[in-house]
Amino acid sequence: MTKSLYIYMGVLYFLITGIGAAVMWTNKKDRPPSIPLSAQLVGGNYSLIDHTGKRVSNQNFHGKYQLVYFGYTYCPDVCPLSLNAISEAMEALGPLADEITPLFITVDPERDTVEQMASYVENFDKRTIGLTGTKQEVALAANAYKIFSEKVVDNDSKMVTYDHSSVIYLMDRQGKYLAQFAHGARSDKMAQKIRSLIKSLEPEKLTKLLARELVTNKNYKPKAGSNPK
Fold this sequence. Notes:
- This protein is of the alpha+beta class.
- The chain has six helices and nine strands.
- Strands 1, 2, 3, 4, 5, 6, 7, 8 and 9 form a nine-stranded mixed β-sheet that branches.
- The protein is globular, with a radius of gyration of 18 Å.
């Protein structure tokens, strides 16, 4: 089969089953249309290595909300833009951000070693955790989150890139899907959406967090997207 036929069959499968994510592919050619997400099918079990070299599973992150993004450290533009948006949203959330763990999961485990991931995540929010593993482990994680990725090697330069889904998932404290943000989503809008969802789930917790911050930091002023109303 040709590459185009593979892509066509994959899009057709997503349309039929209703499990395709509304995503932006890094390859500007042959992008599929935005497809409604079947939320209950996003997320699941995985076992990976974090950027400190520790073996972790999805259960290690239960107890906090998670912002999950799949990409790779050699990504020229899409991935850093998305991770920057996460970082800016985290900053806008103020004290509420401590209830959230950003997770950056590689789609390129061959090059994204523990050391490479550790160096890369330093460029973003300090709470960001990089996750890598074997090809099989990464593939299982990507499958759980309905992430497409495909290795592409330029015939002339031999440069390696990846076509991959670019979507940010917000998961709840038990790792269940809450919302998603497409590539290019504004960080302030992300922060507003996250705050709104958490407020609807845990209104008392949100009030306590803001009250505590006001007591301990008299100079604290909510940033864009952090209005509790």
